[in-house]
Structures
1.
Amino acid sequence: MIDAQDPKLQILSRYKARLTYEPPIPIGTRGNLRGVEFEAIGYMRRRVRYYGVDYEWSETLLWNPFNGYRWLLEYNGHWTLIEDCVERPEEKRG
């Protein structure tokens, strides 16, 4: 039960009331991914129209204080882990 008298919790209540999709991984959930514990700290639902077809997917933002951020994407039951590049890729010729 949430005490709606706390202004911070009121904001969370309004946010939850407007959600049309439930995150596949609830915000605040912690779990191990490739041997590192991450916490789900954000969620967004994305959509793009490509040649007249709409594609929608979920993106969950994960965080670990020592390993940084990762995005975990889900589309039609398939999961993809996205990690930022920290170095510029090198071009190899020939």
2.
Amino acid sequence: MVKEKQVRSTAAKQHIREILSKSETAMSQPEILEHSEGICDRVTIYRVLDRLLHEGEIHRAVGMDGITRYASCRQCDHDHGHQHDHLHFSCEVCGEVTCLEKVVPVLKLPRGYQAREASYMISGICPDCG
């Protein structure tokens, strides 16, 4: 008899999940640490982020500034390979990275190429800064 693997849920994991779900923008690890209210340290945050990525609850986007940010998966299609094929927008003024989940780019690769992962980042000025 095989037991179903149970996902560990710690206070830190739940707190980080809540921080990301309440945020309108993708957040960097230092930003998450700033909002963690001392519940966890930066190493714990990295471990929890890795676990949430692996479990498909969040995704990451690397901004034009090279900083990795994380966001909750709100409209991901878990039944079809859990892909994050939406655009991300990086504001040149405020630095925030926003998921543009209702904008899906069209990508046509040459014959023989197989896409496994893609990152779509657009740089410009967000509505709040424009």
3.
Amino acid sequence: MRVLKFGGSSLASAERFRQVADIIKDKSQATKVAVVVSAPQGVTNHLVAMAENISDEAKLITDLGHFKRAITTIIEDLATSLPEFNAHHCEQALINYEHQLQRYMQGATMLTYCPDHIRARIISTGERLSVAILDSVLQALGLQVSLLAPEKFLFTSDSSLNAVADLVLSKERFSVEYEKLNQIALMPGFIGMSIGKDNEEGTITTLGRNGSDYSAAVLAVCMQAECCEIWTDVDGVYNADPRMIKEAKLLDYLSYQEAMELSYFGASVLHPKTIGPIAQYHIPCLIKNTSNPNAPGTLISNENDQQKRVKAISNLDNLTMVNVSGPGMKGMVGMASRVFATMSRENISLVLISQSSSEYCISFCIHSADMQQAERSLKEEFELELLNGLLEPIGLKSELSIVSLVGDGMNHQRGVAAKFFSSLAQARVNVVAIAQDSSERSISVVIEQRKCTAAMKVSHQNFFSHKPELMCF
């Protein structure tokens, strides 16, 4: 049994749906497959815009029209190119979901806001339509498909828009709900169901950014799959962002830990929530290209290739560093816990943390979109300390990036940090903060975002190409 996940770029057009169906047909000849799909490319953006603009009726109508047109175009093109394609089934599904969306919008407009549990239903509509379309394509090719409903088994936390799956309960419920399946099973990604309390029925949840990848990982656990394949629009994971570094090379292998570090610090093809379940249950993950299915891809597993080298360099942009400092920090028990508890209450993720050895200052990076909320919350939490001069004004430094070196082989390897900082000096980059964990699997530096490209290029040359190049700054 293999789980195959196809992202929005793999389902962007009728032609892409045909490519996906051919891959599924080919894979299903060797083993049973379970397929998880995202919404067609761009569709979720229209749905999100609808949920965020309930007070603007004209904008709602426009976004609903964009959404409907994107799906209709795919259905019409498939009906033209695939003789046995059941267009009526897909059109009826679109009509039903369009009516649902209109009801949700009418209710949200009356409330003057869109509750999170309703927003979750709205923004997950694209995945459900992908299932309806792909199911019709597969049946047109003569394939029998079982449909999986994530609401029946994929149980999550109560967070409507960024839920976390309960792997144990989901695995137990899946074995009860789905004893027998056809050679091909099909499920919408991104969707879960909160665990009801006191015998109450739960509510629909969504799994956050890259939620369909996470859905595939959870389904792989539930089905005890031999492999989880993530099909996307690139050949695999590169040792740097190929859009920034033309010389970036494809990686044939990553450990779970390396993949986690890379995904956390900017590798968009991966996400930490996806790696977690498959690493916990030791399920290999293969990153493949829908448009180039014969390419070997990148394998992620629990083996270690034992190569004493840096594996990749990644970057994460649009960050803000928050500084909480002052004489009241030193020796004061509980100050750090108050800072981090404040961020936790506001559901703000901390990307990187650094503290001075004198205990005078705690610094941490957050996504810049959370900057104002973080500043406001910290001022409220430390109002008395700020008023009495025990803390200095909350410091904020925006337009920052994190550049990270990653590799299991960095452990105990001498000179890596020196070479990294020498590369940054060569690129004339000032380091704002530094972080390294005790595993020595990664070294991260915070730098000005405008210098990120230069830092990446010089570091990549020094660690991977070994070909000096004249750089102009």
4.
Amino acid sequence: MTEATPTMPTAYEAVIGLEVHAELETRSKMFCGCAVVDSTTAPPNTVVCPVCLGMPGVLPVINRRAVEFGIRVGLALNCQIAAANVFARKSYFYPDLPKGYQISQYEMPIAVNGWLEIDLPDGATKRIRIRRAHLEEDTGKLVHVGDSSLIDYNRSGVPLLEIVSEPDIRSADEAEAYARKLRAILQYLDVNSGDMSKGVLRVEPNISVRPVGSDEFRTRTEVKNLNSIRSLQRASAYEIERQAKVWESGGQVAQATLGWDEVRGQTVTQRTKESADDYRYFPEPDLPPLFITPEWIEDVRRTMPELPDARRDRLIGLGLSRYDASVIVAEKAVADYFEKALAAGAEPKKAANWVINELFARMNKAGLPGERIADVRVTPGALAGLIRLVDEGRANHSAAKQILDAMYAEDGAPDEWLSRLGLEQTQDSGLISEAVERVLAASAAEVARYCAGEEKILKFLLGQVMREGKGKFPAAAVQELLTATLRERCG
């Protein structure tokens, strides 16, 4: 009898398409004159009217600025801008949708057939295709209190742009890279703040898995309303692993809408997935077709700001590595801060090192995301001044870090903290010479090893002299004097 060969587990890959819902930062709502307000701070139900409350007999009017923002995003994502746009009624019945339907675009969206390029961990790039971007109105917000739910309609009717990718994403990390890049583009365009904690940007991955090498599309699930990129990455990774285990065990993945439980770190079923037929789309009878002329598109194109990739390439031209430039431009607020530091006189590569390695470390420790860099007490001018202290030899790198700590905690100028902390480097060669002599006198064995050709000992001796100076000795001056003294000793 021959022994049966065990079946090898199948290797699976993810097939992910992302739906991103971005509230547009217009002054008024999509189809009425109500102001757009921060739904996390404004008193509930104070910015509503018969139109956004869905009262009988009211007529919607399209927000021109929202259309221009949609065109702007479409151009940034290399899309074709549709000449003819039709709004439709998307019927579904939830308490946060007072009309019983949502006005959205279905068969004729504002932008189609675009792409976005992401950076991969190995340094390569990948193009993710954009299927469509369409305009619609946001829903109200449910607030759950005990066993009851309250409804705030301030958000109902806020302009929303839904951006739908093709299923070109193959891992949770690629999904994260795509979401970060798209978020940055929306920020640079000034159409969305990118503040996911406030729900103004929400991400929904459609996820399935298939055997590596296959081109089939298997049953997918959709994870709804993820409000952080970290949650997107974690939820996608979990769902990929869960589905792979289902298929590997001989089961079938059920098409469903899922939620993400951040505490338990797992997806949970909310409802079986609806199809387009369930929404009963039909053209919105109260809105005529919207026609976008080539002249209008060109008018919008002329207002386009510099986008992240162009800004990254410009910073590379200033001497930054591609990695450093990519980190700097990933958050518009960080890039703006960095360029203000350059305008204040900071050298680009040094400024990038201080922002990425030092300022980010202090912000991370304080739980402050990069988008909040404008809130730190260290102004771009102060950072440039700190770098200047080091360049002028008035403070060494260790002292500069102490000064940065002080400025981060208590504000103030770098020159003032240099004096207050007593960290200014001395230019007195006599004091440095005395310290060198003391260290060499106490390190006879190390001096002998150096004279015997063990040059790495110089680093140890340099550290001892710097310690004697308590941060006040210029490293270059110490090394020069120490090397000269050692050569004399060695003959």
